[in-house]
Amino acid sequence: MINAPQGRAVQHTAGPAVSTAVESAMRRALALAAQGPSHGPNPRVGCVLLDPGGRPVAEGFHRGAGTPHAEAAALAAARSHGIDPRGTTAVVTLEPCAHHGRTGPCADALIDAGVATVHVAVSDPNPVAAGGAATLRAAGIEVTTGTLADEGEELLRHWLHAVRTGRPYVTLKLATSLDGRVAAADGTSRWITGPQARAHAHTIRAQVDAIAVGTGTALTDDPSLTARTIDGGLFEHQPLRVVLGRTAVPDDARLRGPGGALLHLPEHDLAVVLGRLAEREVRHLLVEGGPTLATALLATDAVDEVHAYVAPVLLGSGPTVVGDLGITTIGAAARFATHDVTRLGDDVLMVARRTQPVTNSLTNPQPAYPRQNGRPSRPTTEEI
Amino acid sequence: MINAPQGRAVQHTAGPAVSTAVESAMRRALALAAQGPSHGPNPRVGCVLLDPGGRPVAEGFHRGAGTPHAEAAALAAARSHGIDPRGTTAVVTLEPCAHHGRTGPCADALIDAGVATVHVAVSDPNPVAAGGAATLRAAGIEVTTGTLADEGEELLRHWLHAVRTGRPYVTLKLATSLDGRVAAADGTSRWITGPQARAHAHTIRAQVDAIAVGTGTALTDDPSLTARTIDGGLFEHQPLRVVLGRTAVPDDARLRGPGGALLHLPEHDLAVVLGRLAEREVRHLLVEGGPTLATALLATDAVDEVHAYVAPVLLGSGPTVVGDLGITTIGAAARFATHDVTRLGDDVLMVARRTQPVTNSLTNPQPAYPRQNGRPSRPTTEEI
């Protein structure tokens, strides 16, 4: 199960017993959804089918682009066990899609299967795929939305942000001493944080679509930007490696070694950069450095979440984690809201999120995120 | 109960049942001890008396200088309930003292009472008071030491440090942004951290013997350095207020208002400063600022514990929490060991401790800490 706060009660249901069964099924559907990949162009969705007595009879989840949607997976599971889905209640974490992708719309599949009722956690904000609830209702199916909506929003946080704003969710990783330094005066920085913090950072790399650094970091540190396990092996998923800036990436750079595809964007305009990444279906971008890029992102209000790994270390000199942000007084500080605090060995990870709405300058008014059935259609190994 | 890790098993006892009873009684004695004041010249001590069957029959703890020691309190409690302490087992968190203060030595009191066995968590390192175990053994009483020794050491951490080194335990408080800044470029700093972090810092003030700032902070911020409750009232205990530096404290400074006594030390030599505070029976010194004093303490390896309140804020400019420490490479960083991490609203508190032994330059070879029965004998309202 995902670690979710106490959810809201289901609305518009037949009674307390059904309400409890639906909420329980939605928790299961959320847990199923969380088994899908957190990266990739498609949202993570789970679905549980209940018989008229409220008992679960089949379930399914989306395993990533190119595989069946959760509703189709649940219906197929029911049929494979000889269960007729007619009259069942479908409990699904995201509003069933109404568009034709590689397969037909999930709304039609539920109608064709004779499902009687549909409970949804989160409505689909995607203008291409939305309308599933209306399609279902037009077919006489009772639809309620908002069951465990907060948990559903949290699970789909990055995808929803990308659909709503037309640009990737940007997570800025920082790894600093208590005095905000990323290296000592002589430039040495290995290691400020400890092995547990570094291992954790690699698990985050394995969950995102892309990871970005500036050319300065690419040339100075020669990073591989791979997602590695504790024993040094590569995770199955490797994020797209993005280098921002005009300087060429050397032929022998580790960035050209094993790992995700390399994308070199000579852009300095971050709105353009994020738009380019959106076109490539990057929903979640992890930015790892260094101070120049972090400063540019913060100064343009492009950071949606900060992952700050803080070590119990004081240096007293050396480069600081961010440069001048044009902030002159405390009331104008770039302030985030702490979402989670985790101790990792001697270090602490603060996960803190945006407190202000996304500014328009970075929002694409025409979201570039069709919800797909197929594999991403664009090439992923190019340099621009 | 104190929040203690799993303790060691008792050694040298009659058997598992007695062992369990003694360990249980020691946990109670530690909890009792923790009810005593964490400030003041005397250690916090608790004592539980067990009958020959291992059942607790009386208990006591030390309530601060000028009140009975824990053993005397427990014996008095037994007698007030008509219980003869002869043949009982005394379970006490610190080795009973062997010196004559305002009352006679606790070791003699236990011998006179006819106690049969004594279990101790921590031996007394105080050369004036030590020797209690030997006195008891010479009188034919069985004495074991080391029961829940780790928990006992933790409870007496500041006092033991002061007795062993001859100088106060120094806790350095830092309150910073994620980029290690204590104020914005225009000097504004209210508030980087939130109300929960500030309230927590006041509870720490109420637990220490003294609180120190440099004259720079005293003049710039005009702090009161009082320990205040959430509603703005004063805690019963107010720490000695220490200002370090040559500049005079203005007549109308808040430091001269309600609160603890004011001590102005024009010293720049931190070994001398700590020695002066040790003479005044300061066991635990909290240093609150600013960067100049923090830097001096860190540069002389005088910091025993760091309390870093970190806010999810980025400033990009403004003064950093510490200045140049003479550290040029990462291997020479001032590195502490994290003891505890606490989320306080949006902020996080990292409590991190010294990893290297105290250096000799700051250690007084002749500890100036007699364990007292009486009130501190030195005046506490002077300026030097």
UniProtKB/TrEMBL annotation, chains A, B:
GO terms for molecular function: 5-amino-6-(5-phosphoribosylamino)uracil reductase activity; diaminohydroxyphosphoribosylaminopyrimidine deaminase activity. The keyword Hydrolase applies. Residues 356-384 are annotated as: Disordered. Its EC number is 3.5.4.26, 1.1.1.193. SUPFAM superfamilies: Cytidine deaminase-like, Dihydrofolate reductase-like. The keyword Membrane does not apply. InterPro entries: APOBEC/CMP_deaminase_Zn-bd, CMP_dCMP_dom, Cytidine_deaminase-like, DHFR-like_dom_sf, Eubact_RibD, RibDG_C, Riboflavin_Biosynth_HTPR. Pathway: Cofactor biosynthesis; riboflavin biosynthesis; 5-amino-6-(D-ribitylamino)uracil from GTP: step 3/4; Cofactor biosynthesis; riboflavin biosynthesis; 5-amino-6-(D-ribitylamino)uracil from GTP: step 2/4. Residues 20-144 form the CMP/dCMP-type deaminase domain. Binds 1 zinc ion. Pfam families: dCMP_cyt_deam_1, RibD_C. It catalyses: 5-amino-6-(5-phospho-D-ribitylamino)uracil + NADP(+) = 5-amino-6-(5-phospho-D-ribosylamino)uracil + NADPH + H(+); 2,5-diamino-6-hydroxy-4-(5-phosphoribosylamino)-pyrimidine + H2O + H(+) = 5-amino-6-(5-phospho-D-ribosylamino)uracil + NH4(+). Gene3D superfamilies: Cytidine Deaminase, domain 2, Dihydrofolate Reductase, subunit A. Keywords: Hydrolase, Metal-binding, Multifunctional enzyme, NADP, Oxidoreductase, Riboflavin biosynthesis, Zinc. It comes from the Bacteria. Residues 356-366, 374-384 have a biased composition (Polar residues). Its cofactor is Zn(2+). In the C-terminal section; belongs to the HTP reductase family. In the N-terminal section; belongs to the cytidine and deoxycytidylate deaminase family. Converts 2,5-diamino-6-(ribosylamino)-4(3h)-pyrimidinone 5'-phosphate into 5-amino-6-(ribosylamino)-2,4(1h,3h)-pyrimidinedione 5'-phosphate. This is Riboflavin biosynthesis protein RibD. It comes from Promicromonospora vindobonensis.
